[in-house]
Model the fold of this input.
Amino acid sequence: MNGWAAPGRDQRINPGDRSLDGSAWRIRQTSFAPRSDGRLPVEIDCSREKVRIKRHILQNDDQVQFLHSVVADLERLPYHAALTTTIARVRDRILHLQFGDDAAPHDGQEAGPSASDTGDTAETEAPAEQQVPDTQVGFRKFRDPSLLTALEHLAWGRTSGKCFPHKACGCKHRRHHAEPHAEGMPSMLGRHIDAGGAEAAVPDPDDARKLVHFHIQHLAWHHNCWHSPTFLAECETFWATGTYNHPLWLALYLSVLSATVFGTQHSEKAKAAIGVDTARLPSTQQLFSSMITVLYRHHFLQDLTLYSVQAIAISTEVAHNLGESELNATLIYAGIRISECLGLHRIDDPPALAGSTEDWETRVEREVGKRVWCQLTIQDHFAIPFTETYGISPGQVSTSYPSNADDRDLVHQPENVPTVSSYCRNLVQLAVLMPELADGLGTAKQQLPLKQQYDHVLHMDRRVREVVNQFPPFFLKGDLEPEASIPWLQIARKSLAITAAEKIIMIHRPFLFRSFQAPAYAFTRKTCTAAATTILREHNALTEADEVSIWTHTAFCITAAVILCLEIYSTPGSDTTTAEHHRETVRAARQRLASRSGDLLAQRGVTLVDVLLNEGSQYGEQALDQRVSMGFDWIASVLYPAKNTSSGGVSAEQLMFAQDSHGPGPGSDFSPGAWASSDVGVGAGFDVWFNSVFFDNAQDMVL
Done:
């Protein structure tokens, strides 16, 4: 037979067949093209499939035997007829362990209505000549699609993934011990990089060493995209010899330096700890621009490597503050696709068999892959309110969270033990809620009725609080002993408190504007106002403590200030005390933002706050009493042009039911105030909940 010699109905492959033993199982091109054309025969090394099949059998055999005994015991019970569903579920589990997720029932096992139950025997029973042994069905069903993809990818010049960290696979991403690169390095050390015609200063090795060490101790917890001893060893080689393993490693190096310079430029305490003359350091913008130049100069979209993804993920620490949010968004999506090509979304856990071992380098690379994928997931999912979509589909990912392990040994620790991975491991648990939030509001073309949407928002509010309540104690309460030995723990705890408050706001974003207009959404307004006040209080505490700068601190400070501006001009004119208190809080935040030189995001925040405060001051008490303030009429006319009244204004009722075909009508139980007074299932108000979770006492609240 011409073509590929693949297993068919008459040419079966038994996973337990000893003919599979050997160095590899190969499928050869027998006569796909004449040999006289000069082409070499194509060989596909499938030794990994053989190992995977054998490992699968060994791991699951004991469980299968045990479950068979459970089924036998259940069937001997006098009332076994009442346990039909339970027995069927156990048998389904046996099938799953043997053949995969979607294996069909066999040998008379029940997994749903039988043919006799439906009376459709002729259509449900397969002809005898088409029935094949179970093992072969499972093998063909779950391996042939992957095999077909691998064959197609040969023609396309692509790889099938799922072999990260590419240590023992045969794909083109397999890493070999190549000679280190030294292109242009003598001119780099302490002077300049000739990056495609653009000169970008870099720190000399002594300064760079101090910056990298500071980053490891005080900043790496926020992204956790590397194994610090490995990166530090690569840096030492680079500083000593000017060589590196891959041209795109330089992008990672520059990304780390740019994040460090940015994080320390507004902290005198951090500058003193580093001990570097900041005047001779390149700026954050210079280092970031050099990183971008290196990425494109060395074709990061073609030469796929984890170094590029690490550089992109870490560059988020500075990109938004440099006014490069659009560039960052496109780079993150590119990083996600590169990661998928490398197989980061399908990283298998190491075998748990007794006596099995994994070499240290493979273990490190596997863990780094998980860490990078975790960070990409966080950034992708938290961007949903701004992109209105997400690039990582949770149902198509099998990579587990990174271990709660420190870099020195990568040994998994209990959750109550702080490690460099703790922050991201907890943050990603909030991030994975965001696709569910977006999907629960309906599709882009068919939004659900507002009542259903708001019910969903309240449900997700409760989910966020439940996740936060389960954070380990060292992230919720201050503890001097661990914070004294772990330099990043205190700021990580305060950062997580700010982030948790901002994620509550993120959950309520779909109804945030409406909440300042319609009493029905009073819970959203009250919750977001309290969360904004909390964010600004914690931001002030971090500023007074002279802590390192984290980009989210600036971003969330702006969000909180805007929300309080909305609250100021939606507060009844009779309540001047509350409005003035909020106004002073916003002004203080504005001053903190204005002091951040070189932070374009902060400067834009200052401009936005000024515009909002000045715009709001143009409206008098009459507008406030009508609950139409701060240009809301104009904003609403843009958002909901079909709902405008003849006078150009938008009533609260119209705003509530804009874009809702299921608005109030005869028999409707949806009315203003329905949620404001209802039990939303989240317990006490935001202030009470937040303070009880994150603070031991009132004194700690103001620290």
Q: What stands out?
A: The chain has 30 helices and four strands. The mean pLDDT is 75. The first strand starts at residue 26 and ends at 28.
